[in-house]
Design brief:
Number of domains: 1
CATH architecture: 2-Layer Sandwich
CATH superfamily: STAS domain
Largest sheet: 5 strands, mixed
Strand content: 25-35%
Distance between the termini: 33 Å
Number of strands: 5
Radius of gyration: 13 Å
Structural class: alpha/beta
CATH class: Alpha Beta
Helix content: 25-40%
Order of helices and strands: EEHEHEHEH
Length: 130
């Protein structure tokens, strides 16, 4: 595995920080891990920070990962993803959301937390301007 993940349990959410080099197989494993740990800890909120994962996620991978997440994340979990601003195109987020996944992709932890555990009722209030 070329991605390493550190996990800390915070008040109201689990923080996962990924580092390394992107690969599709590692991304699938990360989605599996989010789901498994959500069930094990009974914590429905996850902040996944992938801003330090090197490499670009191809568009087709974003779509395939969104479809995979929608089939996997049956338990009602919320995942806020922090990614590099220049790489955010909302494709994963829109494809996953259209399939019933509660997720957002934003460029900073503060915005992610506001959406994840704050009083933000919608994505448009959480910095999603696209």
């Amino acid at each position: 595995m070329s991605i390493s993940v550190s996990v800390t349990q915070e008040t109201g959410y689990r923080y996962m920080k990924a580092k390394g080099t992107y690969s599709l197989s590692d991304a699938y494993a990360l989605l599996d891990r989010i789901y498994a740990e959500s069930l094990e800890t009974n914590c429905k909120n996850t902040l996944l920070d992938i801003s330090e994962v090197a490499g670009k996620v191809p568009g087709m991978d974003r779509f395939n990962l969104a479809e995979y997440a929608s089939g996997l994340w049956k338990y009602p979990i919320r995942v806020a993803i922090v990614y590099r601003a220049e790489e955010i195109d909302k494709f994963f987020e829109n494809a996953a959301s259209n399939r019933g996944v509660s997720t957002i992709v934003v460029p900073d932890v503060q915005t992610a937390l506001k959406w994840l555990i704050g009083n933000t009722p919608s994505k448009s209030d959480a910095g999603d301007r696209k």
